[in-house]
Amino acid sequence: MLLAGVDIGTLTCRLLIARVLPDGRLREVEADRRILRLGERLEETGNLSPAAISRVLETLRDWRRRIEAAQVDRVVAVATSAVREAKNREEFLALAKRSGYEVEVISGEEEARRTMLGIRSGLPAGISRVLGLDIGGGSTEFILDRPGVGPKLYSLQLGVVRLAERELRHDPPTEREVAAARASIRDELERLRPELGDLTGTTLVGTAGTITTLAAMALELPTYQPTRIHNFRLEMETVRLLEQRVLSRSVAERKGMPGLEAGREEVIAAGTLILHGAMEAFGFASCLVSDLGLREGILIDLASRLRQQSSS
């Protein structure tokens, strides 16, 4: 089967066109991702802004042409935190439908389940207990997945767009702002600690743009190279060093830093603070980086449902 998946996130929108192999794995045919900031000022206004909606719809129309040209068998499109929270979500969904998409607004729990499907599809052998970490634009999800137990989601209002707009107002951030951001992150994570329980033998696996970007920065890659980023280990000392580098620079000075994806200059500081805080709070010396996540998971899930339909 040739399938297309679209992930409409708070910060980034992603497209994946892939063939589903008999063993359930994906073979990428075409992919794209764009930082469109659908959730900008959402916390302040409660609505998706007209400018942000326009940016996303323009991209969706472009992707629709590419999907049609590829002659895919099925398309799935999902929306996450920003659209879930927006008071004008129905307006956005109606506009997306006119652009050719029946967008499914998935719950946090469903987002976690499909993200873990993507993560699990690319893990090295021997890893069984996983704490998935997905730092998004509007929220941060922790997904605890252990053998014999279904994935359990813990969602915190700690997205990079939200944290940057709320706490890191100066450019570069002041010491007081950084301290306030650290305290906010620490408070949220402390409430989560009893829920996670004993994490002995658990591997922290990070997915999505913030963490893959930090891996690219650690490797000082001139261009994004998925094969080098996937299953790279971000050590705590490396995260601390990257945090110092981005916090000491203005947005303009961050542009051109090796590995830093264009468009992430304003939010990478918030993302690095969240990752550092999570590793420190839960006692992880490193974070395994997954280039696979929700975008892959929605296609793996769709393929599974199609197989069940054809066999029934």
CATH top level label of the largest domain: Alpha Beta
Order of helices and strands: EEEHHEHHEHEEEHHEHHEHHHEH
What is the CATH topology assignment of the largest domain?
A: Nucleotidyltransferase, domain 5
Q: What is the typical, i.e. mean, pLDDT? A: 91
Name given to the CATH architecture of the largest domain: 2-Layer Sandwich
Shape descriptor reads: globular
- Give the strand order, joined by hyphens, for the main sheet: 8-7-6-9-11-10
What is the oligomeric state here?
A: single chain
Into how many domains do the coordinates divide? 2
User: CATH homologous superfamily of the largest domain, by name?
Assistant: Exopolyphosphatase. Domain 2
Helical region count?
13
Q: What is the rounded distance between the termini?
A: 18 Å
Radius of gyration: 19 Å
Structure description:
The protein has 312 residues and is an alpha/beta fold. It has 2 domains: 2-109, Nucleotidyltransferase, domain 5 (2-Layer Sandwich), CATH 3.30.420.40; 123-290, Nucleotidyltransferase, domain 5 (2-Layer Sandwich), CATH 3.30.420.150. The chain contains 13 helices and 11 strands. It has helices at 42-45, 50-70, 81-85, 89-98, 108-120, 160-166, 175-196, 209-219, 226-229, 236-247, 251-254, 268-282, 294-311, and strands spanning 2-8, 12-20, 26-35, 74-79, 103-105, 130-135, 140-146, 149-156, 203-207, 233-235, 286-290. It has a 6-stranded mixed β-sheet with strand order 8-7-6-9-11-10, sandwiched between helices. A 5-stranded mixed β-sheet has the order 3-2-1-4-5, sandwiched between helices. The longest helix has 22 residues, at 175-196. The chain is globular and about 55 Å long. The mean pLDDT is 91.
